[in-house]
Amino acid sequence: MTTAAGRVLAVLSAFGPRHRSLTLSDIARRAGLTLPTAHRLAGELVSWGGLERDPAGRYSVGLRLLELAALAPRGLQLREAAFPFLDDLHSLTRGNVHLAVRDGREVVYVETLRARAAATNSRVGDRWPMHATGTGLVLLAHAEPAFQAEVLRSPLERFTRYTITDPGELRRQLAFIRQSGVAVARGTITPDDLVVAAPVRDPSGRVAAAISVVVQVAGARPRELARLLTATSRSLSKRLASGPARVMASSGARQAGWAAPAACAADR
Fold it and tell me: In what helix (H) or strand (E) does residue 111 lie, and over which residues does it extend?
């Protein structure tokens, strides 16, 4: 990064779902900056509130960024409209529930509801490669062909033995998702989990987001989960198309008439 703004952005970009707390040396290395430059920029960001520094000298993202993120219309408006539907999904399935949007080649969670006994946290702002998550697979399946080709040409990171890393296999999976309307994947990030995801369409009919439920593989009922996710995604898409009308908490998942299994969820 050659500009002052670029260097600040590089410092902030050093943080991520797997790098929530960093030393100054970590920041310098991940941002590609010298240690003195990283020290100066981190200090300025702490003073502004963009970063926080704990007694041990480690840095994490500050509340000022959370305040700014809440102003993002794409995430905030979508979260407000979707929350009653997500809450129903969470209550019925007892699994981890995600609402995600595409950002570059990654999927970003703009809302998460976590199962009580989940082994791993999902948090708002977490981002993952699209090929490795249920929501990401849905968004990738409905992306423009040129973007799909770009992703298929890029390295596909492996998280577990179930993660799809072969471009041909991924291409076939995307075609099946478009045909079936849902993505069903097992253990792509955590081996014992099963995820079912479905698209959410904006008023123009374009797939703008995806919702997912993650439950433990043992005792999971993917067909019933797929039916539930499909009904919920349709209801949420209709809600988005209706404009600012009031969202009823009983719409969506409860209309699908599905009873939850006892299994709970870990992430993704």
Answer: strand 106-113
- Distance from C-alpha of 267 to C-alpha of 108, rounded to nearest angstrom: 14
Taking the C-alpha atoms of residue 17 and residue 204, their distance in angstroms, rounded to an integer, is 32
Distances (CA, A) of 51 to 46, 63, 109, 110: 5, 8, 21, 20
**What 3-state DSSP class applies to 187?**
coil
DSSP string, 161-174: TTS---HHHHHHHH
Structural domain for 187, as ranges: 72-242
Q: Would you say residue 56 lies in a domain?
A: yes
Please state, in angstroms and as integers, the Cα–Cα distance from residue 64 to each residue in 49, 58, 127, following that order: 5, 18, 20
- CATH number (domain holding residue 11): 1.10.10.10
- Asked whether residue 249 is assigned to any structural domain, the reply reads no
Name the DSSP letter for residue 22: B
In the chain, the number of structural domains is: 2
* Strand 207-216 with 193-201, pairing: antiparallel
Instruction: Record the pTM.
Output: 0.70
Contact between residue 231 and residue 239 where contact means Cβ atoms under 8 Å apart: no
Per-residue DSSP letter, 16 = B
**pLDDT tens digits, residue range 118-157?**
545 678 878 899 999 999 999 999 999 999 999 999 999 9
d(CA 28, CA 59): 12
Q: Model confidence over 10-24: pLDDT tens digits?
A: 999 999 877 889 999
